[in-house]
Design brief:
- The chain is an alpha/beta fold and 362 residues long.
- The protein has two domains: 112 residues, Aspartate Aminotransferase, domain 1 (Alpha-Beta Complex); 241 residues, Type I PLP-dependent aspartate aminotransferase-like (Major domain) (Aspartate Aminotransferase, domain 2).
- Helix content is 41%, strand content 17%.
- The strands form four sheets. A seven-stranded mixed β-sheet has the order 2-10-9-8-5-3-4, sandwiched between helices. A four-stranded antiparallel β-sheet has the order 11-12-15-14. A two-stranded parallel ribbon has the order 1-13.
- β8, α7 and β9 form a beta-alpha-beta unit.
- α1 packs antiparallel against α10, α10 crosses α11 and α11 packs parallel to α13.
- The chain starts with 7 loop residues before the first strand and ends with a helix.
- The structure holds pyridoxal-5'-phosphate.
Length: 362
């Protein structure tokens, strides 16, 4: 069989991995109940806490689950039983938090936003009831590409004494994130977005206040128990067999990021996003997000050709772009800027998009 040409992946995750990650992925997984593996986990924890600017006393746990697993673990174990919470809901990831919170018996005040629209103080004031004690937000709503005004949300939570829980699965590395400055008690992320490792692991950073919440809550789940995860994390272990190889990938990747500097990495992602948006600014495509993240550009296609563009990119250019689901499938598609994308690959993307535009697709 002829070897297929490598597809260029410009989706929102999983994304293309750098060599230091790929070289780990090709090796046997070592046995993990060892001091050596504990050292790796503890090193990953320190690096994560450092990159997140987590406040003193924070801990970080590694769950073998996709990002949604971390979202659910937080909903189950950090929120108090039947807690009255607010969820910023501006797309499918916001909706996922709403659904998870309701599934687990929490009362939810939704801050519902039109797709791609930025949040305002007025909306927070009018939608979040006085009884609310915690607020959940997907810092970057990956379905629309919108980066929320986190300083505003953070101010609001501080002024009300509301615990802030942040899903930064697609924002981590791509956009500026300082847990301490935000006053966030939880930040969660996953292996397959900005970290550019294989999918399968998620990471939850918990401030000391969040750990106290976990400790004082009744145990409501087994596999995703944060109480168990925290107990084991103190010796650099996980309660169950982790995706050992992905932990090693994360370790390799965090070393590289720490060396290059997370700011440099973020600037690179931002400049790729800028180049693509700039190239498309003279076409009929319009950015969905009022304030776009660095990680993703979501575009409206006035001619209902979104699915066609994604198909053509795959068929003729060997490029994966990201379709949107549901009602917007024909109207919106997304381009991811995260992962290991070289300047040449980004230029190839830009030229393919320009050609599709010249061909009348948009
Ligand atoms: C990707 C993503 C997730 C996690 O999705 P999984 O498919 O479970 O990994 C959660 N939140 C946001 C904002 C995401 O972009």
């Amino acid at each position: 069989m002829e070897e297929a040409k490598k597809m260029l992946n410009f989706t929102v995750g999983p994304v293309m991995s750098p060599d230091e990650v790929l070289s780990v992925a090709g090796q046997d997984a070592p046995y993990f109940r060892t001091p050596e593996f504990s050292d790796v986990v503890l090193r990953c924890e320190r690096a994560m806490l450092d990159l997140l600017h987590a406040p003193d006393g924070s801990r970080c746990v590694f769950l073998t689950a996709s990002g949604t697993g971390a979202m659910e673990a937080v909903v189950m174990d950090v929120l108090r039983p039947g807690e009255h919470v607010a969820v910023v809901n501006g797309g499918s990831f916001g909706q996922r938090f709403v659904d998870l919170c309701r599934l687990h018996g929490h009362e939810v005040d939704e801050v519902r936003l039109d797709f791609g629209n930025q949040i305002t103080r007025e909306m927070l004031e009018s939608c979040v009831g006085d009884a609310v004690t915690a607020l959940l937000v997907n810092m970057h709503e990956t379905s629309s590409g919108l980066l929320y005004d986190m300083p505003l949300i953070s101010d609001f939570c501080r002024s009300r004494g509301v615990t802030l829980l942040v899903d930064a699965v697609s924002a981590f590395i791509a956009d500026e994130l300082d847990m301490e400055q935000l006053g966030a008690d939880v930040v969660l992320t996953g292996s397959q977005k900005g970290l550019a490792c294989h999918p399968g692991m998620s990471i939850v950073a918990l401030s000391s206040a969040a750990q106290e919440r976990v400790d004082s809550n009744p145990e409501v789940c087994g596999y995703l128990s944060l109480k168990e995860a925290l107990r084991n994390a103190s010796r650099g272990q996980t309660p169950w067999t982790p995706a050992v190889s992905i932990v090693l990938e994360i370790d390799a990747r965090l070393k590289a990021i720490s060396k290059a500097g997370i700011d440099a990495e973020r600037r690179e992602i931002g400049s790729r996003a800028f180049a693509v948006r700039e190239a498309l600014s003279s076409t009929a495509l319009r950015l969905v997000a009022e304030s776009p993240s660095n990680a993703v550009s979501a575009f409206y296609c006035p001619g209902h050709n979104a699915k066609l563009i994604v198909d053509q990119a795959k068929l003729h250019y060997g490029m994966w772009l990201c379709p949107n689901g549901g009602k917007l499938a024909d109207d919106v598609f997304r381009i991811g800027h995260i992962g290991c994308i070289t300047a040449e690959q980004n230029a190839a993307l830009v030229s393919a998009l320009k050609q599709m535009s010249a061909d009348g697709l948009f």
